[in-house]
Amino acid sequence: MGFFLFCRAAQCRRVTFHDENHMTATPLANRATTHETCTWLAEQTGTPWNLARLLENGLTPYVWLEYSDEHAELFAEGITGYPAPVVFIEDTQRLAAGSDDVWLRFTRDSGSLAIQLKAPGIRMPLDALRFFQRDVAQLAEQLLHPKEAEPERVAAPRDSLKGISREEVLHAFGGLVKMDLDKALTGGLGIFGDDGARVRKNSRSGKHSHLWNPVTLAFGLHDVHRVPMPHLKKAFATQPVLRAWKDAWLESLALLGE
């Protein structure tokens, strides 16, 4: 019943994208299937699309989760179902490689907080994947009308630039690691020895609240936990919370010859 309702909901909102070179009135569902997404993008761009290419271009797939006692930690009070993103790098790599089902081991809960699922995670059929219309339309716009890169102005240093919070770390890096990053950060440990990526105690927050240097943290995730460098580079290029740290990140990369 939940999946049926989800499919019905996917028909409620549709979008039509027009381009002077690719005039088409084919509608796109608000929560489109992989086939619908690939067909629509093929019409817009004039090139073939598949699931691997969708993921390569940064689209995030979702699956609809219904409440269950086994995974109650995913649901806020009163929430009986929500679209959970497939964000864990190993889960998306598995999809791109041609897996015949979806394996969800790390996602975001109904409140958008990163969370690692209890083993063995959640398995779902491949046709349960959905893509949000707004994300697909934005990708088409970027491909059809690329904008020239503009010099990015970095905000002047402020107190928070001494580190980012646990919640910001989880939002920026949570989907890239298999370890329980939330537990490690909550414990206030250095993670990588000594103080590691921990900068200082956040005096404005409560117990077990620290600030973290995302540049140091990113290199530690790469060196210790084998997070691929391209995924860390993408995080600094796309995550708003890391924007002010971009210069420090690029400078560190240059010093290391990356």
Structure description:
The chain has 258 residues and is α+β, with helices and mostly antiparallel strands. Helices cover 36% and strands 15% of the residues. The protein has 10 helices and 12 strands. Helix 2 runs parallel beside helix 5. The longest helix has 12 residues. The chain is globular, with a radius of gyration of 20 Å. 28% of the residues are buried.
Which keywords apply here?
alpha+beta; two-stranded antiparallel ribbon; 15% strand; 258 residues; two-stranded antiparallel sheet; 10 helices; disordered N terminus
Give the overall shape.
Answer: globular
- How much helicity do the residues have? 25-40%
The largest sheet, given as strand count, sense and whether it forms a barrel, is: 2 strands, antiparallel
Quote the average pLDDT. 77
Output the radius of gyration: 20 Å
Unreliable runs = 1-15, 18-24, 154-160
- What is the straight-line distance between the termini? 50 Å
Pairing-aware structural class of the strands and helices? alpha+beta
Strand order in the sheet with the most strands: 1-2
Number of helices: 10
Task: Give me the count of strands.
Answer: 12
Strand content: 15-25%
Order of helices and strands: HEEEHHEEHEEEEEHHHEEHHH
Short summary:
By secondary structure, the chain is an alpha+beta fold. It has helices at residues 2-9, 34-45, 51-56, 89-96, 133-144, 166-173, 181-186, 214-225, 229-238, 246-256, and strands at residues 14-15, 28-29, 31-32, 62-66, 81-85, 101-104, 106-108, 114-116, 122-125, 131-132, 198-201, 210-212.
